[in-house]
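Quick log. Single chain, no ligands specified.
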Amino acid sequence: MVGIADGAESNWKFLEKQTEEQILDFYHASGYLGALAEALHPNTVSKQKEWLTENCRELKHEKGKAGELLNLMKEVKEEKSHSKNLTEKLQAAITYYENHQHQMDYAEYLGLAEKVKKRKKCGLGKYGLKKHR
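-> predicted structure:
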């Protein structure tokens, strides 16, 4: 069984006892990318949105994308001069991704979800198992 939660430590302590695998909810993982979009395109909201759309899609569908984004966050934080507020947001994003990168393999779990959905459509019941009558 797979557990899904936000980044709160108490969630993971609970889920580790209850599930075999855990994954970070996509909403929170993608939410931290706003700071990176702002740092990369500081004066153009349309470019920020475009970058976010593309990179959120890639985070969801490409294996290893969380690590790539983490590395980019670190590079951007060190290379450019940012406001104190943006620097703090970037650091928060870096910390979040460092703590949860191992729980962000969305491509793998998307494939699993599609298999379960397909099996349910074929009448195989919950989790792809045949129902006993």
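Helices lie at 9-18, 26-31, 33-40, 45-61, 65-79, 84-100, 106-121.
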